[in-house]
Amino acid sequence: MPESSEATITLAGDLHARPAGALSVAASKFDSAVEVIVGANQANAKSVLAVMQLGASSGQQVTIRATGPDAGDAVAAIIGILAGATKAGD
Amino acid sequence: MAANVGIVLVSHSAPLAEGTAELAGQVGGGTVTIATAGGTDDGRIGTSIAKIQRAIQLADAGAGVLILPDLGSSVLTVRALLADPDDLPGPVVMADAPFVEGAVAAAVTAAAGGDLKAVLDAAQEARHARKL
Q1: What is the bridge-based pairing of β-strands A41-44 and A61-67?
Q2: Cβ contact, residue pair A25, B101, below 8 Å
Q3: Mutation site, A32, A48, A52, interface B, largest B CB count within 10 A
Q4: Do A50 and B107 touch (CB under 8 A)?
Q5: Residue range of the domain that includes A17
Q6: Which residue of B has its CA nearest to A25?
Q7: What are the tens digits of pLDDT across the range A43-81?
């Protein structure tokens, strides 16, 4: 059974094009399947267009869920990016 | 680290190609070479085979090059160029994708170290991405 991991963060800024790009670049480096979940919507983290389409904004809770051999590392890396990258607000 | 796939944006308009390259470069984090071939050799609206050839040379880092054309004769000009692969530095493929979305998706996948097939797939999957 593949490893599964999940963590939630409250966004300090909007998930605009640049942080969405950073998130997708990071997610694409992992073998695990990675989902970004905002409210009732979810997107493949490796698809920057899908992540941007979520329109996640400051103050919203975002859950990162990964399934696969490097799921824990993937969730940690992406939560780290969301904690840092959304502060600039662009 | 292995070389990233390079991207060439071919547009009838130089500012359109350059602006799209700027946006895709920012979203991709700036680690991918995105070269542009916009307008004719004398700066009018149109396409230039010489500009496309130069852009391919600039974008090629050894992992292949993805070309995104905007409309109509951009596609035809690129297709003519690809018909003679002996003149190309390595593997070069053209994506059937929306210009802006395809460039952004390709830049992200190339920045993550995806191979030419993965970058092509990312660009072409952009055809199905909803905006609203």
Answers
A1: unpaired
A2: no
A3: A48
A4: no
A5: 4-85
A6: B112
A7: 999 999 999 999 999 999 999 999 999 999 999 999 999
